# Entry
Amino acid sequence: MAETPPAARAGVYPGTFDPVTNGHVDIIARTARILPRLIVGVAVNAGKQPLFSLAERAEMVRAEAHEIAARTGSEIEVREFSSLLIGFARELGAAVIIRGLRAVSDFDYEFQMAGMNARLAPEIETLFLMASERHQFISSRFVKEVARLGGDVSSFVPARVHQRTLARLRAGPAGPGDSL
# Structure
């Protein structure tokens, strides 16, 4: 059997990453052990009323991904996108979309999305990774909510992200322009 070219083994891990959590970082690190090339797609999602701008979210993910790439020797790129995920994956030549699952409640939504993506782009597979046990309950939404109410979220996000989250909450949310 012929070896698959590296470009065909590229994966896309999409999300809003508002903010990037230790769970996200764990999925990025575990994927970097599986695929030689990973593109982390930081998505525009104005409907979620982001705490951080698109550029800030991409910058935070980039800092964490840089350390993982240095440690694993894999190629990790961080890109912003506002298009349909399948279009973004095709544009990058990705063969796999990575999705993290925390709980059974995530599965129904992710299963439907994977089915839709398979119909739109049958050549692109969806790979589900279960969250590591210590990260199963972490979500960006909970991190923001707990932090807004004065709770300690330092064990849920990387140290740099923790500092930026606290600073942002003191300063107020990102401006209305969360666009590319």
